[in-house]
Design goal:
15% strand; two-stranded antiparallel sheet; alpha+beta; three-stranded antiparallel sheet; 141 residues
Amino acid sequence: MYNYSAKNNAFYPESERSTYEFHGVWPDDCIFVPDSVYDEFSASESPVGKVRSVGNDGLPFWADIPAATKEELVAFAAAQKSVYLALSADKIAPLNDAIELDIATTEEVAQLKTWKKYRVLLTRVDTSTAPDIEWPEQPIS
């Protein structure tokens, strides 16, 4: 037997109610829900593209996952750019070492130039234009 708190969008087992109350954390808006509601909205995975939300009746329902905001898209693009830049730095470092030590092969010299060009192009990516970003093509190494 479970209770549901719309305020917390969470289920609470009736069997643990006294413990929650003892610690003063039992939500004041809890309502008893049948096991079928708990099974659908807590014990199983959410349907694809859906998220558990609270309906006007105070009960859970499956709502569409909201589209990302512009700010979220820009933040994701900035994080992605950082990952790509870190990868390029990891690729460039040993190639630079080989050149500085005069042990670079012709192929390593060419790879270094390709990775450096990629890194420069990455630095020019304006993440504020997300999601309409044309990322430079990552070199194959």
